[in-house]
Automatic annotation (TrEMBL):
Taxonomic superkingdom: Bacteria
Protein name, UniProt field: Putative cytochrome P450
Source organism per UniProt: Streptomyces zinciresistens K42
Example of a GO MF term: oxidoreductase activity, acting on paired donors, with incorporation or reduction of molecular oxygen
Family listed: Belongs to the cytochrome P450 family.
InterPro entries: Cyt_P450_B (IPR002397), Cyt_P450_sf (IPR036396)
Gene3D superfamilies linked: Cytochrome P450
Entries under CDD domains matching the protein: CYP_unk
Length: 421
């Protein structure tokens, strides 16, 4: 509840405050496995902007409507990225699980106005220097190496051995890390742990190691620049400090790695479980590109993004949003908004989805193109190397990771005819 909530009766929030009685907890099994049903229910009950509760019953607004998400992301003067504006900070415990996502850091993610344009401009210039054909070749080489590790066994769990590993190695190659070295492999592993910790992992320690290794990389590239993203960021006329480059490199790598991994895996799931693709991929009528695009609409890797913070009291979707309120961008809900898809037909043929967000803070161009190169190469190379790839379990046995933020499978077990290359 915001600091401006004194207008309500004692102990009850005023109308429109996100902590009101009908606020829905963002979590639970239904959310994790079938979020689209929850979005439909929220939309029916609350409209385009719903009051929700984050971990520990912290109130926020979930923006479900496509026009509303576009409005929030294109009006930075009303809905800003600097989380220090949040009116809930007095109620947030130090151990709050979402602190890594909302705790202010001096990275491009939390900058605003001219400073954001300066920092995002450096990233854009650095990414524009990546040759997409060279990236595709590198991704194919990485894919071949990873497939060779399990091709002879006739079975694999693709989430950990392939979908996560490929974009991590590819983005580190773009940043100038030496391929195949022991410390690059350690960094790949630490990235996985810090972004997607499993049982027994220590994500905080892994994140500290990632920061330390990237600090070392920036120092190396400052002394001896090369044809890579890190060097281009350091040499940019905007003259970023080493610390700024490290922070923004972490943002670039995190944005490239886990969403792309889930994009790859969700696309493989679609290809392996949907008869339209099973029949047609070999016949060439429905392409891998169509599958990749359909996943961005219907199973987008980043389903929700936290967030924006209201700069002042304002209205959105018929709701009174108070200064300092937190808004969660419901990218997956917006992509399936019935207002833009009459008769609930979601067509994969256009690419006006919000999977890379929108406005000033969207993924900087050409990041979506580079992610597409990684995902497309990963899927196509696997299908070519292992043409009889099938699921090793029933479709209904596949489970989604318990996350309201990312949409990705826990595991993707497959079988195929063993091949020795």
């Amino acid at each position: 509840m915001s600091d401006h909530s004194g207008a309500g009766s004692a102990g009850a929030p005023p109308p429109g405050c996100p902590a009101h009685a009908s606020a829905v907890p963002l979590g639970g099994l239904q959310y994790q496995q079938t979020p689209s049903e929850l979005y439909r229910a929220l939309r029916r009950e609350h409209g385009a902007v719903a009051p929700v509760l984050l971990d520990d019953d912290v109130p926020a607004w979930l923006v479900l409507g496509y026009p509303e998400v576009c409005y929030v992301t294109s009006h930075d003067e009303l809905f800003a990225r600097d989380s220090r504006r949040w009116n809930q900070w007095p109620n947030i415990p130090e151990t709050w699980p979402l602190l890594p996502f909302v705790g202010y850091q001096p990275s491009v993610l939390f900058t605003e106005g001219a400073e954001h344009q300066r920092r995002a401009g450096v990233i854009t210039q650095a990414l524009e220097g990546v040759d997409q054909f060279e990236l595709a070749r590198e991704c194919q080489a990485i894919a071949e190496q990873l497939i060779t590790l399990f091709a002879g066994s006739g079975e694999a769990e693709l989430m950990s051995t392939y979908a996560h590993a490929l974009p991590a190695r590819a983005v580190l190659w773009m940043c100038g890390m030496p391929q195949g070295s022991e410390d690059t492999e350690q960094l790949v592993d630490d990235l996985r742990i810090s972004l997607d910790a499993g049982e027994g992992d220590d994500p905080v320690a892994a994140y500290m190691r990632v920061g330390a290794r990237l600090t070392q990389l920036v120092k190396e590239k400052r002394e001896s620049p090369g044809p890579d993203v890190t060097s281009r960021m350091l040499l940019d006329a905007a003259a970023l400090t080493d610390e700024e480059v490290v922070q923004d490199l972490i943002s670039v790598i995190a944005a490239a790695q886990q969403p792309t991994a889930n994009w790859i895996c969700n696309t493989l799931r679609l290809l392996l479980t949907d008869e339209r693709f099973a029949v047609n991929v070999s016949g060439g009528r429905v392409s891998v590109g169509d599958a990749l695009n359909e996943v961005l609409w219907l199973d987008t890797p980043t389903q929700n993004f936290i967030g924006r913070w209201a700069v002042r009291d304002t209205q959105l979707g018929g709701r009174h949003i108070r200064e300092g309120d937190c808004l969660v961008l419901g990218l997956a809900a917006a992509n399936t908004d019935p207002q833009i898809w009459p008769e609930s037909h979601v067509g994969a043929e256009n690419s006006a989805h919000l999977s890379f967000s929108n406005g000033e803070h969207r993924c900087p161009y050409p990041a979506p193109l580079l992610a597409d190169v990684m995902a497309r190469t990963a899927v196509e190379t696997l299908m070519e190397r292992l043409p009889d790839l099938v699921l090793a379990v029933e479709t209904a046995e596949l489970t989604w990771r318990p996350s309201i933020w990312m949409r990705g499978l826990s595991t993707l077990p497959v079988r195929f005819t063993p091949s020795v290359h």
